[in-house]
Amino acid sequence: MKRLSKTSRANGLTYVMVVAAFVILQALSAGGGLSSTLQGQLVPICAYVVMALSLNLTVGILGELSLGHAGFMSVGAFAGTVAAVSLQAALPSAPVRLLVSMIVGAGCAAVAGFLIGIPVLRLNGDYLAIVTLAFGEIIKSIVNNLYIGMDGVGLHVSFLKNTMTLGEGGRMILNGPMGIPGIQKISTFTAGFLLILVALIIIFNLVNSRAGRAIMAIRDNRIAAESVGIGVTKYKMMAFVLSAALAGAAGTLFAQGQTAVIATKFDFNTSILILVFVVLGGLGRMWGSIIAAAALTILPEALRGFATYRMLVYAIVLILVMLATNNPMLKSFFARIIPKRKGASVDG
Amino acid sequence: MTFLNHLINGISLGSVYAIIALGYTMVYGIAKMLNFAHGDVIMVGAYVCFFASSSFGLPPILGVLLAMAVCTALGVVIERLAYKPLRQATSLAVLITAIGMSYFLQNAAQLLWTSNPKIFPTFFTVTDRETGAVKTGISLFEGQLNLSYASIVTIAACIVIMIALTLFTSKSKMGKAMRACSEDKAAAQLMGINVNTTISMTFAIGSCLAAIAGVLLCSSYPTLQPTTGSMPGIKAFTAAVFGGIGSIPGALLGGILLGVIEILAKAYLSTQLSDAIVFAVLIVVLLVKPAGLLGKLVREKV
Amino acid sequence: MAKKFDKPKMVPVPSHSIIPERDIDKSPILECSHLGIDFGGLRAVDDFNLTIGRTEIAGLIGPNGAGKTTVFNLLTKVYQPTRGTILLDGMDTSGKTTVQINRMGIARTFQNIRLFSNLSVEDNVKIGLHNQEPYSMLSGILRLPNYWRQEKAAHQRALELLSIFDMQDLAGVKAGALPYGAQRRLEIVRALGTNPSLLLLDEPAAGMNPSETAELMENIVKIRDTFQIAILLIEHDMSLVMGICEGICVLNFGQVIAKGTAEEIQNNPEVIKAYLGTHKEA
């Protein structure tokens, strides 16, 4: 029972950390202690934190590398925003609309995750990774050529070319490469905080349940998992779809906090950025993902002083951190000064 | 005839992909890592050649040789500084480091050379003796079939490189050492092969080829920016997987097919969706042949 | 929690049977006939026939590379056999997957230990109990009452199973951090968690010292007696094989060269030749 208690302690501390950060930031924000740039970063930070948690579920818990996670974020962002815009009249309350649009975003991303999972999860290792990359690019191309408009009749969709003629009072929502302009910003920091909590609860509860153990068993040793009667495809799919749904919700949150979104925002570089959060924060370590996502989203802003050098500094910091945390010599050096934690693979 | 034109353009672009894919595939075969910075080495090569010829007025061939030298050194330095300390680390850690290196090269290029696009000079021209007109290609069948010199040189270069590399890996001592390392590093070491030197050599060859690919790429698509290398890099990586990563003929096959599919999709299906089509074909291929066209599927021993 | 089979039926006992006395009135749990697999041109296993009684401890021995583990891989459908049939409790297993085979009642351990090494000892056993304590992923995420009930049951069952090898105190330790012998024992416990009717042990005593091996022998017999299951084991330690196996099957170059009791095997000239080689070959 040693480990169980340790795990639940780490999980508890993660919740405390998130709640404390929320309370402090809310207080600072109310007291005017936050710079306007940071204030504007709060919703994107929450979205990236959820993205990192979601990807950590795929990479850390399921053990499969995904290089196209921004694709699910994109599906969530556009599906959710289209839902929010078209429901503007029906649901005047912004929080309710945000909730509904998040559910739509998560649902659409889950469907995308399922469809992609069918071919992807049959592959292994690097091949799986390259196919997720391919799907990320395909989603980007599709959304980039999708036109959605709305009029009295309902939603109209066309692909590649805008061929629709909208009725009276109709308006374009998604306009191909121009994306969705003029979004009402209904995402709030509180909504983002709640989404992080929900994501944490889902992931922690999953990990400490039968399904979560099956998923981690597949990660640790697929052949042994099969030998004890665990259906590998089923559980891989479960984890993958769940991860996609969380990414979709994060996408909706992100998009509703922007004035406009375009498809190319969710490209390969964004997928990689999120992967960097996950790897820096530690595989399977949720609190690590949260801190890494928050810190690395703020870092480029914080480096504004360096102006032109900031992205260069970012790259150097990234390389140095990876070298410091993974080189056996440096690692043993750090191990000597910092007492080593003998944790299980899933803590916090 | 237009189809033939597209086909030749496709093969030409595919040859560039193939040369880049070689770098990915060789490094993957030996170091079992995805060197994401490889695409940016291409960009560095193109810049070096660009400045050598436009700022220092060096003849193109010297520019190319200089680019090859710089990239070879760069590849070896990157490997020594960023990847070698992580030999024992997880592949994911190395991958992230490679991504960091890619960011570094792109941003360093942006600082050094700004993000304003440079127009790469046209090297492959022939001046007509009689009229003095500068021709960039030959026109056949009364102008129905246009072959640019850049395409011809690219395809020829690709063929030469493939033959040379195949001979190198099968005949030379270093090539055999490389193949031994890709099979089993520990066993190779026990046979007296210096694994570190072999890996460095692989990076050197891959990066040297990247420089050539950079020059060839920019000869056909002359806009040069710090991000020039990233998309061809991803495509070439895809090509390497397509053909079966780790396999040299696979890189050739994957690269050419990818280039042809891309150009034909652009010409006949949809310009906007050409990338999506390329990736969709990749997915289909991997579903049918999970280890790529020429790759060998290794079964885990139970 | 007793496993129910659809159609337990009497099957004629083949002549080469090595079924022990007390199982003689029951149908055998496993019957392999003319089992074989080719890897390319190599006949890794050929014409393999074996029958195991319901509560028998049987041994599969042979020199290195004889195809013993391949037989295990055939039985558990890691490889699909090229030829022959496997009947488990009278039911044909052709076309079944590894997962289905486990649910039908075969559990195994691995020669090269395959634990879920990043997870705790208890979780490893609970993963073995996966199909014994079913509740949906949703119950798990929402922590519905049956989550708590079944998790509690799984926890108790896991500790119970671990107590076979006196490992209940190690429940919280990371499986990968266990000493070698304990890892082998944990694999057995995990396999038992799936409630098998036939347990396959691939070199259970490998890397153990004589006193550990002696203890293991006692425990294997204890497992058979408590769970009333059949056990087929691959082992190089002859003291273990000769000590507890009621029937022994000797494999060489993928073919059965002898079958019988310990005494019969020890005096079989074919077996001696296979192990020691003839003068000509030597």
From TrEMBL, chain A:
Matches recorded under Pfam families: BPD_transp_2
GO annotations of cellular component type: plasma membrane
Membrane association type: Multi-pass membrane protein
Matching PANTHER family: HIGH-AFFINITY BRANCHED-CHAIN AMINO ACID TRANSPORT PROTEIN BRAE, HIGH-AFFINITY BRANCHED-CHAIN AMINO ACID TRANSPORT SYSTEM PERMEASE
This protein's name: Branched-chain amino acid ABC transporter permease
Single annotated GO MF: branched-chain amino acid transmembrane transporter activity
Keyword annotations from UniProtKB, A to Z: Cell membrane, Membrane, Transmembrane, Transmembrane helix
InterPro entries reported in the protein's UniProt record: ABC_transp_permease, LivM-like
TM spans (from-to): 12-30, 42-63, 70-91, 97-120, 127-148, 186-207, 237-257, 272-299, 311-330
Localization terms from the record: Cell membrane
Major localisation: membrane
Claim: Cytoplasm is one of the keywords in the record: no
Keyword field contains Ribonucleoprotein: no
From TrEMBL, chain B:
Keyword Ubl conjugation: no
GO biological-process terms attached to the record: D-alanine transmembrane transport; L-alanine transport; L-isoleucine import across plasma membrane
Name recorded for this polypeptide: Branched-chain amino acid ABC transporter permease
One GO cellular component, as annotated: plasma membrane
Membrane topology type: Multi-pass membrane protein
GO MF, any single term: L-phenylalanine transmembrane transporter activity
PANTHER family, A to Z: BRANCHED-CHAIN AMINO ACID TRANSPORT SYSTEM PERMEASE PROTEIN LIVH, HIGH-AFFINITY BRANCHED-CHAIN AMINO ACID TRANSPORT SYSTEM PERMEASE PROTEIN LIVH
Subcellular localization: Cell membrane
Family: Belongs to the binding-protein-dependent transport system permease family. LivHM subfamily.
Transmembrane helix listed as a keyword: yes
Parts of the chain that traverse the membrane: 6-27, 60-78, 90-113, 149-169, 190-217, 237-264, 276-295
Keywords: Amino-acid transport, Cell inner membrane, Cell membrane, Membrane, Transmembrane, Transmembrane helix, Transport
A Pfam match: BPD_transp_2
TrEMBL record, chain C:
Pfam families: ABC_tran, BCA_ABC_TP_C
Tree of life domain: Bacteria
MF terms (GO), sorted A to Z: ATP binding; ATP hydrolysis activity; L-isoleucine transmembrane transporter activity; L-phenylalanine transmembrane transporter activity; L-valine transmembrane transporter activity
Keywords: ATP-binding, Nucleotide-binding, Transport
GO-annotated cellular components: plasma membrane
InterPro entries (UniProt xref): AAA+_ATPase (IPR003593), ABC_AA/LPS_Transport (IPR051120), ABC_transporter-like_ATP-bd (IPR003439), BCA_ABC_TP_C (IPR032823), P-loop_NTPase (IPR027417)
ABC transporter domain span: 19-278
Coiled-coil regions, chain positions: none
GO biological process: D-alanine transmembrane transport; L-alanine transport; L-isoleucine import across plasma membrane; L-valine import across plasma membrane
PANTHER family xref list: AMINO ACID ABC TRANSPORTER ATP-BINDING PROTEIN, CONSERVED COMPONENT OF ABC TRANSPORTER FOR NATURAL AMINO ACIDS-RELATED
Annotated protein name in UniProt: ABC transporter ATP-binding protein
Organism: Lawsonibacter hominis
